[in-house]
Specification:
By secondary structure, this protein is mostly helical. Helix content is about 65%, strand content about 5%. Helix 5 (about 85-100) runs antiparallel to helix 6.
């Protein structure tokens, strides 16, 4: 049985990390694209933050700009693997805010997002990343 489990050691972790970065980035980037119209936010984004997304402490218009900025600028960092752990942390915080204050019943979806983002935060972006190329983030040694 142990030999069977050792087969999993041959799964290419770098490919899994790349896939996590691409998919997590795409989820948020696509959402950000839905908020823009030309060079600004569309009316729907403002209406959602004013009427549906009841965030405490942050005015709706500021929250709309902050969320859209995060959704548009953090995913490319993930895709390139540039400051990937920080980008994943930002998106993880955004996921937690969405889960707690906006859509608490969507815990399955947010749980899946969290797993992908925590994978990047914990294990880094992998060898197919600029962080690795620049020597900033080396993968952990597998035993």
């Amino acid at each position: 049985m142990a030999a069977l489990f050792r087969l999993y050691d041959y799964l290419p972790a770098d490919v899994v990390q790349l896939l996590a970065r691409v998919l997590m980035g795409w989820i948020f980037f696509r959402s950000g694209l839905g908020n823009i119209d030309g060079f600004g936010l569309n009316e729907t984004a403002f209406l959602l933050f004013q009427n549906e997304f009841n965030l405490p402490l942050i005015p709706p218009d500021v929250a709309a700009y902050m969320a859209t900025a995060g959704e548009l600028f953090l995913p490319p960092l993930l895709w390139m693997g540039l400051f990937a752990r920080f980008a994943a942390t930002g998106l993880f915080i955004m996921t937690m805010v969405i889960e707690i204050f906006v859509y608490p019943a969507a815990y399955e979806t947010h749980g899946l997002w969290s797993i992908g983002l925590l994978l990047i935060m914990t294990f880094g972006p992998g060898r197919f990343s600029l962080d690795y190329l620049f020597g900033w983030d080396k993968p952990p040694i597998r035993s």
